[in-house]
């Protein structure tokens, strides 16, 4: 399973999670200013940053396969350039409900804000969902979508599951669990990474700074990955047995 495929699936999952959380997201009939700023990316800027994203993914793939530790850093403009690309539209957006389009991200200190446009006969506007990483363990990440204002999307979380995740469940490299607590704590999402064991890697850290996302991990090398020490040849063994030992060479005191 390549890092490129994992990268795409994680983007799909984050979009689905945010899209399905009626009651813990902000619905706006007007285009928020921060969202509008990230929609219009000049072509030259987008192309330059798409090259950077591709280079970083290739390096990530090599590092995951060959190094004990790896890290992946993505800037906000790089992420949004990829979300506006034809690759995203052709290979990722097709898995999303047709009502969702033009996703963009805003990276704040400790917070990942996801926004996208919804076009539906019951609602047309922009959905904004703030996500915070609560904890990172080697085999799972917990993310919280906090309460902003109440409101319901024209489609439910169950509908999202049935129409999208259900028929992709066997192909997804991660598992998802969620629990809704009280209004103050919002919804806690647990993304399980145990199905990525075939890559022998674990997630160590996810940090979100102003304008930048950084993910660090490590790889546990299996015994098959480490070359076995060469066994001594038959000639070496015979020579070793024939060589005089230290005792045979005489270790007695002078004059003995």
UniProtKB/TrEMBL annotation:
Q: What parts of the sequence cross the membrane?
A: 6-29
Q: Where is this region: Disordered?
A: 217-256
What keywords are annotated for this sequence in UniProt? Membrane, Transmembrane, Transmembrane helix
Superkingdom of this protein's organism: Bacteria
Q: What is this protein called?
A: Uncharacterized protein
Q: Please name the source species.
A: Polystyrenella longa
């Amino acid at each position: 399973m390549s890092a490129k495929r994992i990268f795409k699936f994680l983007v799909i999952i984050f979009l689905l999670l945010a899209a399905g959380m009626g009651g813990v997201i902000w619905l706006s009939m007007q285009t928020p200013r921060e969202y509008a700023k990230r929609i219009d990316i000049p072509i030259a800027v987008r192309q330059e940053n798409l090259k950077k994203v591709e280079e970083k993914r290739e390096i990530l793939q090599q590092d995951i396969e060959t190094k004990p530790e790896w890290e992946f850093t993505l800037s906000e403009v790089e992420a949004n350039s990829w979300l506006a690309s034809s690759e995203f539209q052709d290979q990722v957006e097709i898995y999303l409900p047709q009502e969702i389009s033009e996703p963009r991200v805003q990276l704040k200190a400790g917070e990942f804000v996801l926004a996208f446009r919804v076009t539906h006969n019951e609602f047309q506007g922009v959905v904004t969902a703030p996500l915070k990483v609560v904890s990172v363990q080697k085999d799972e990440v917990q993310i919280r979508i906090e309460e902003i204002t109440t409101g319901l999307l024209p489609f439910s979380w169950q509908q999202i599951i049935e129409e999208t995740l259900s028929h992709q469940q066997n192909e997804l490299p991660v598992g998802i669990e969620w629990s809704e607590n009280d209004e103050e704590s919002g919804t806690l999402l647990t993304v399980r990474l145990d199905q990525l064991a075939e890559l022998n890697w674990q997630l160590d850290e996810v940090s979100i700074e102003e304008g930048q996302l950084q993910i660090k991990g490590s790889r546990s090398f299996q015994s098959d990955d480490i070359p076995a020490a060469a066994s001594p040849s038959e000639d070496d063994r015979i020579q070793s047995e024939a060589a005089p030992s230290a005792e045979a060479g005489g270790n007695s005191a002078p004059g003995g």
